[in-house]
Write a structure and sequence with these properties.
about 80 residues, mainly alpha, about 45% helix
Length: about 80
Amino acid sequence: MIRNPIPWPNGARCACAITFDMDADSLIHISRPKDGHDRLYPISMGRYGPTVAVPRILDTYRKYGLKQSFFIPAWCLVRLSAKP
């Protein structure tokens, strides 16, 4: 074991990382650049993450006072913030 262990805050003995992968519908556009915009089923599945899942995750973290960091691909931010 470690000879001089660094003490954890509040007597904690471990930490964990909970991660989420949010690529939205970018993968369908990368894999099918010519007709990806016409593939509504995979696009709607990809939009679930940013439109439904992320708000639910934020609400849950807020409810329990948990801190988080989000790293989202710029393509997703630009695409989702663009007006139709």
